[in-house]
Amino acid sequence: MSLSRPLSLIGVPTDIGASVRGASMGPEALRVAQLQARLEAHGLTVHDLGNLPGPANPWLPPRDGYRHLDEVVQWNRSVHDAVFEALQRGHLPVMLGGDHCLAIGSISAVARHCREQGKRLRVLWLDAHADFNTSAITPSGNVHGMPVACLCGHGPAGLTTLGGVVPAISPKVVRQIGIRSVDPGEKRFVHEQDLEVFDMRYIDESGMRHTMELALATLDENTHLHVSFDVDFLDPDIAPGVGTTVPGGPTYREAQLCMEMIADTGRLASLDVVELNPALDLRNRTAELAVDLIESLFGKSTLMRK
């Protein structure tokens, strides 16, 4: 895979939407794991734009079904503007979270860019969770459980309107992979909205290769592929450094195959890396694994055949 576009690394050091503290340290852990140098070793041009500023986490209980809504909106506005600016400059934005609520800003910006450029959008959501809660059905009020719903127009105006059009995306553009923890009300809502979900049972029965073939089907040269990679997608045996571990995730080899097949399309145009929590990690092991997998997204391959 040859990628001519420069990469822009955008650090977003906040756990404002999360259920436990620590994801705010995720961007630095990825830098400590040599993300920039490892990508540059593959011939890529990488600009680290540093960390976005934003409000501190007040760590308060939910109000009206949301925790920290004002601060979540502020962070996501900053993410939207930074990601949109990177895309306007012809760069490939890599948003280093931070918790997964930040994908609202990131994907709103990508969707806006696609509308302006006349491109189709495909979003791959690699996650243990569907993240399709609303204030009415959330058990916790944590906004990192709501980003896909907000992007599809189900959420507070401060989050659904970020990219200027509501909804920012249709559920039809999303493919969720690795899902294995969904709240009861959320499950009903996912079915109502007809979200395409390849859960772990599907991967067990059909294999990661067939799953990815379906998730990547019908991509063409006019498709912008966005990957939102929640590190809790991975099995906690190999990736313990996340706040919401769910047993039974993809193995190292399954995750590598997933990333390599995305790279093979040559369509990857923006990326979120979220929910890495160094406070819960062992010697930065999860960050190093995440960097290894990100390298594979950008063309590092185990392929020995000609």
Automatic annotation (TrEMBL):
Main EC class the enzyme belongs to: hydrolase
EC number: 3.5.3.1
Entry's cofactor comment: Binds 2 manganese ions per subunit.
Keywords: Arginine metabolism, Hydrolase, Manganese, Metal-binding
Binding, Mn(2+) 2: 232
Protein name as catalogued: Arginase
Sequence similarity: Belongs to the arginase family.
Residues reported in the UniProt entry to bind Mn(2+) 1: 100, 127, 129, 131, 230
One example of a Gene Ontology biological process annotation: urea cycle
Domain of life: Bacteria
Pathway participation: Nitrogen metabolism; urea cycle; L-ornithine and urea from L-arginine: step 1/1
SUPFAM superfamilies: Arginase/deacetylase (SSF52768)
Record-level GO cellular component terms: cytoplasm
Catalysed reaction equations from the record: L-arginine + H2O = urea + L-ornithine
Listed Gene3D superfamilies: Ureohydrolase domain
Entry cofactors: Mn(2+)
PANTHER family found in the cross-reference section: ARGINASE
GO MF, one example: arginase activity
